[in-house]
Amino acid sequence: MTAAPLSGRATATEPAPSHEDRTGQEPRDQRRRHGLRAWAGRQYWPAVWYLLPAAVFYTLFVLRPLGQTVWISLFRWDGLTEGRWVGLGNYRALLSDTRIPAAIGHSLEFVVFYALLPVALGLFLAALMSRIRIHGLSFFRAVLFLPQILATVVVAVSWRWIYDIDGPLNAALRAVGLGSLARAWLGDYHTALPSVGLVGTWVMYGLCMVLFLAGTQKIPTELYESARIDGCGAIREFFTVTLPALRGEMSIALVLTITYALRNFDLVWNTTTGGPGTSTTVPSVFIYQGAFLTHEVGGAAAISVCLTAVVLVVTGVVMRLVRGKEG
């Protein structure tokens, strides 16, 4: 029986030291595989299956129509015959259309009525209802929120009757001796746009109020008690406690109301149809007219794409500003 070799050298059967043994590190490709495996282990993959149905519907009914609209905007098409490729011609035509800047200006004016005034009214009502005990508060909330759930056609027809030359508004003015102010509110160049805008204020303030009331319920009562101990009055208490706590709800309210103001169509069309003249026209009116009346479908699609881009940019700016303040 032969003795085993006594030298410290490795025998021929021993494996050569690996790269990991010499450097103490794994090869790059092996480290990459380990990193991918660890990343996959951290993901909650079952959530993908829950999101998949919504993603499919969103793709079919939002992204696909949006892509088709972009494609149609590159053609001159009447909706019936074969379209003719014009590339960016429809967009260049928009830049030279003098009606578009005026329509955009009207939309920006509607932002004041549809967004800023409702947010201000919603804050006031939410602060009032959270501070003062009101019997039957749920009933008042429901009544104030009612305009938000009514069909816009019903709202438009009702207010068109109120604004009529022989309607309740003019009758009330005559009853209190202000008959000189009576007029056809929706038929006057100077009052048509503010009149429609006030209808938008009446519709949207209920949504803002409900959002802000929900936000006030999460504010700790200790903050109000501390403010009152420090001698804060109602106004200072609102600006130091309530308003900062409602920043998240304000961002949601602003995004919803500004979006509604920029894409406003139904109230304008069912009250003034963009008139008198072009005093209340908005981009959505031109989209409807081009798609269904003048059969300029390609141009209408181009306006739709531009309007969508404007809404996304404005929404992004609002969200960025709010998040920046929160940070």
Q: Quick gist of this model?
A:
This protein is mostly helical and 327 residues long. Helix content is 70%, strand content 1%.
Give your account of this protein's structure:
The protein is mainly α and 327 residues long. Helix content is 70%, strand content 1%. The chain is built from 15 helices and two strands. The protein has a two-stranded antiparallel sheet. The longest helix has 33 residues. The radius of gyration is 31 Å and the shape is flat. The termini are far apart.
Offer a few descriptive terms.
15 helices; mainly alpha; 327 residues; 70% helix
Q: How many distinct helices?
A: 15
- Show unreliable segments: 1-14, 17-24
- Give the N-terminus to C-terminus distance in angstroms: 80 Å
Major sheet summary line: 2 strands, antiparallel
Percentage beta strand:
under 5%
* Structural classification: mainly alpha
What is the element string, with H for helices and E for strands?
A: HHHEEHHHHHHHHHHHH
| Extended strand count | 2
Overall geometry: flat
Biggest sheet: strand arrangement: 1-2
What's the overall average pLDDT, rounded? 85
- In angstroms, what is the radius of gyration? 31 Å
Helix content: over 70%
What is the element layout, followed by pairings?
Layout: H1 19-23, H2 28-42, H3 46-72, E1 75-76, E2 84-85, H4 89-96, H5 99-131, H6 137-149, H7 152-162, H8 168-175, H9 192-216, H10 221-229, H11 234-245, H12 247-262, H13 266-271, H14 283-293, H15 297-326
Antiparallel strand pairs: 1-2
